[in-house]
Each structure stands twice: as structure tokens, then as C-alpha cells.
Amino acid sequence: MNGAGQTLYLKLPQNSIVSGRTVCIGDAAKLECSDAGIRRTVKKIEICRFAENARRGRTEVFSVLNLIQAIHKIYPELEIVNLGESDFVIRYEPDPEKKAAQYLKVVLICVILFFGGAFTIMTFIEDVSVGKVFDRFYERVAGVPSPEISPLEVSFCIGLAVGIMIFYNHVGRKKITDDPTPIQAAMRKYEQDVDTAQIETAGRKGTNIDVDD
Fold it and tell me: Which of 55, 102, 192, 208 is an S-S bond match for 61, by CB 3.0 to 4.6 Å?
């Protein structure tokens, strides 16, 4: 069958992560076609093979035209509609990181953030003399000298903790709302910037995997 009268829909994300050295179209793209046989065959078309000594985090930049060319070699009359990216990145991650290492990294980052945040807050408070402001405000309202720990300081600490939880959209392991947290949004933006830079760099150098002229 040459694919005459059939339409194949491709949906490509900008970034795909694979663990195997051999990469097929089905590893990078979502496919839809009324002919299940065509869909199964296209999924198994090889588009890339990473070397045995390929390092972790190796990336290759592809053009969707490269995929279309590979498909047309098998189904020359098949109509292909691309619903995703025109250029995309495939990242090779052969050995998933162990959970123990992931937890260790999370703990280390939390410790750094905790002490860094504490230092930043204390430095800020010392610069603007928040403690003195609390003492004077308490004396004016209550008419007596401020105690060592005043309700204002307690409220400040509680409000700071609540504000941080609301800002980061997390209470422990649970999210307050279904919206992405600021960190998640920043990470997605960073990934998009990295992918865009890789695609543009590969295009300028002529190292992206594209159709033959």
C-alpha cells in the first residue's frame, strides 16, 4: 500500500527525552491515522541512532521535513499534516537517575534555599530596622514598652510563612491550586529558551538533521 487516499497527522513537542540509542518516529511524535497499519509502521521508522559511547544529555535537532521524507519513502502518496513543531529537539538520557540521588539533590537545594532565604530576610530587616519600627508602633498603640517578643513580630512571622506558601502555591507536598507554581513556570520558560537556542544554533551551523537538498 502506498498510502493513497490516507492522511497521517503528526504532533511533535519541542523537546523529547529518550533512553534508547535507537530513536523511532513513535518516540518523538504522536500519530493519528484512520489506517492502523500505517500508524504502526510509521511509529517504527528509525530517524536517529545515538552512538554507544554517546554521553548523557546528548541532543540532536531535527526538522519535521526529515520525518516526512522518511515516511514518504515507504508511503509516497500519503498525505501528512503536521500539528506540532516544525523543528524539535531529542535529548538522550540513557540511565535514569536513582531516586536516592534525586532526594539528596532536593534536600541539598532545600538547605541552600533555607539558609540563603534566612540570610536575605535578616539582611533586609537589619537594613530597614523593622524591629525598631515594630517597637515604636507597639509603644504608640499600647502605651507601654514593647516586650521582647511582641504580637507584631509573631504576626510578621506567621504572615511571612503564609505569604511564601501562597506565592509558591504549595503547603508541604500539596498544591493550593492547580496552577503551575512560579518555579515550574520559570523552569518551563528556561527549557523553551534552551531548546530555541539549540535549534537556532544548529540551523546556523547546518548541523540540524533535515531533508537532503
Answer: 208
pTM over 0.70: no
The three cell numbers of residue 82 are: 503536521
List the one residue out of 28, 139, 150, 48 whose CA is nearest residue 88: 28
Q: Where are the alpha helices (DSSP H) in 61-129?
A: 64-74, 99-128
pLDDT of residue 11: 92
What single string gives the DSSP state of each residue in 111-125?
HHHHHHHHHHHHHHH
What is the pLDDT, as a whole number, of residue 79? 92
pLDDT of residue 177: 73
Contact status, residue 16 vs residue 90, Cβ threshold 8 Å: yes
Q: What is the mean predicted confidence (pLDDT) over 196-206? A: 84
- Report how far apart, in Å, the C-alpha atoms of 43 and of each of 81, 130, 134, 192, 209 are: 15, 63, 67, 26, 18
Residue 201, by phi and psi: left (phi above 0), alpha (psi -120 to 50) or beta? alpha
